[in-house]
Amino acid sequence: MNSPTLDPTTPPPPPPENPLLRTSHPLVSDLEQEVLDEYTRLLGNVNTLSCKLADLAASPSSMTLDALRLLERKTATVCTLLKASVYSIVLQQQIFNESEQQQQQQQQEQVLMQQGEENDGRGFGGYEF
């Protein structure tokens, strides 16, 4: 269902007349009438906004396009910085893991060297000859 294109310079058509919106209706209290009046104003504002948005969508202004280009550049910069930060964290973690492995190897070598020094001068089975 296609709706007709609205001219943004003309106000939207008034909503159809609702008998409940009349101030003389006996079934509507004063508070309910105030709420209904606010909803009527809200409907008018939403219709006006809809017309303006339709106009912007139909022919985007150069200011809007320039703002979107600037936003795109800023978003790309943030994305690049985020990728660089993640890469830096991953790289630091790899360096940390490698240094831990080297420390463990050095500790194992030291333990083996100490065991070798304790066994020097001893024969088979740890008995001296």
Structural summary, described in words:
- With 129 residues, the chain is mostly helical.
- The protein contains two helices and no strands.
- The radius of gyration is 40 Å and the shape is elongated.
Low-confidence stretches: none
Averaged pLDDT, please? 80
The major beta sheet can be summarized as: none
Q: Which percent range fits the helix content?
A: 55-70%
Number of strands: 0
Q: Name the beta content range.
A: under 5%
Pattern of helices and strands: HH
Count of DSSP helices? 2
Shape: elongated
Structural class: mainly alpha
Q: Kindly provide the radius of gyration, computed on alpha-carbon positions and rounded to a whole number of angstroms.
A: 40 Å
The termini sit apart by 106 Å
Provide key terms for this protein.
129 residues; mainly alpha; 2 helices; 67% helix; chromosome; DASH complex subunit DAD3
